[in-house]
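Hi there, hope your week has been kind to you so far. It would help a lot if you went through both lines with me. No rush at all, and the record is pasted right below:

***
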Amino acid sequence: MHANTGDRLLVHGRTVGHHDRVVEIIEVLGTNGDPPYRVRGEDGHEAIMSPGPDCVVQHGKSVDVGPAR
């Protein structure tokens, strides 16, 4: 799993009644985009995470600067 600062991590709920949640990666603590990641939830809570198989990285959109002049 590789991610960059600003990407989102979708954490699937593992049991009935637990919904999926999305956290923002605010710092990559591993090398070359590898975990662990410092993440921030929608409620502002921050944590350090090493995601498991129930997580998916949602990469941020790249910025298109257009052709050079």
Remarks:
- Residues 60 and 66 are 18 Å apart (CA to CA).
- DSSP finds no helices and five strands in the chain.
